[in-house]
Amino acid sequence: PIQLQHPTDQNFTVLFLQDTKDVLYLGGTDFVLKIDVDSNYVMEVGIINYSLYGPCRNVITVIEEFQDSLFVCGTNGYKPQCWKLVGNRSSEIVESYDGTGISPYVYTQNRLSLTVEGDLYAAAPLEYDGSSLQFRRKAGSRTNVWMYDNWVSEPTFVAASWVRRKEDRENEKIYIFFREKNSDSSPEADPWVTRVARVCKVDEGGSKRFFQNTWTSFLKARLVCGYPKESLYFNHLLDVYVLHADNWRDSRVYALFTSSWNSTAVCVYSMADIDDVFEKSNFKGYEGDIPDPRPGTCVKNSRGLPYATLNVVKDHSEMSEWLHSSIHPLAPFYVSSYNYTKLAVDRVRAADQHTYNVLLLATGRSPQCVFFFFCFFNSCFI
């Protein structure tokens, strides 16, 4: 094991594992460390420390591999900034960019980032007060696109995943998992609901006359985890892990939820079921004929989509049908009284030569952690 000591406590760190090179990057306040997993060699990379103190320190919030370089972003004293780092043993800054919309102004604000084939997708506040938060394609070879303001309400983005389709590249999509304020204000309704949304990777936005630089394929659906017969749900999404399969339809989404009664639950969803809802469900609040092409369809030229299709996306982006867990649809896959906050999944071959999905659940308390191990239905928990 590697033991690292830093002269000051770190309230926030971000990790990035470069799988192909067995290198782990660790970002904290005013520094980024590069750790060679094989040799345990540790070095500080880049010129991230600007000798800022107090609330103006530069907290690193994003580390991604982008355009064959390491892409690092931080709060930079309330002026979000990004840096492009190159080099092996002595990485250095070669370019810097405005980080607005990629890194938050304050490290406690919501943020999300994802790189897909040379394009950077991100969600971070556009304003200092944490407002104007939305999921965008922010940089890369494709057109920068963003969300229509009315699609989400006070969102907290949790995860994003690119689901590859080896035999159908033009239909590949980015899936976004988040929670948002419930539009149903009735006393019995939960104040927050969990969503899964998707956009097409090839989406270039609409024409100059309508929906220019706006997602033309954005759709969202409610993600449900709980006991439907009792109308009892875990509505506060905490973490998501997508376990990809060779056939994209067999991929599984593991989602960690918490509830108002202080319990956590894991629900498992099939990517095939998720996609079927987007392809077959009615559009909530829409009563007309469904136009052709169907709203949300991936097309080579999104700028040529007809108004009828775009108007449904604009005003009725939510699906009527809810998404229930594929495994144990009448109850969560796992429920615990522990306050778990993070979830990861690994696929391993055991001594009995069977392959299991190992779920790793972590609490947010340190140094106390709860570990346990058991298996059922070809899945194991730690």
From TrEMBL:
Keywords for the protein's UniProt record, in alphabetical order: Glycoprotein
Biological process according to GO: axon guidance; integrin-mediated signaling pathway; neural crest cell migration; positive regulation of cell migration; regulation of inflammatory response; semaphorin-plexin signaling pathway
InterPro entries in the cross-refs: Semap_dom, Semap_dom_sf, Semaphorin, WD40/YVTN_repeat-like_dom_sf
GO function term, MF aspect, one: semaphorin receptor binding
GO cellular component, one term: external side of plasma membrane
Domain Sema: 1-382
Domain of life per record: Eukaryota
SUPFAM superfamilies named among the record's database cross-references: Sema domain
Transmembrane segments: none
Signal sequence interval, chain numbering: none
Protein name, per record: Semaphorin 7A (JohnMiltonHagen blood group)
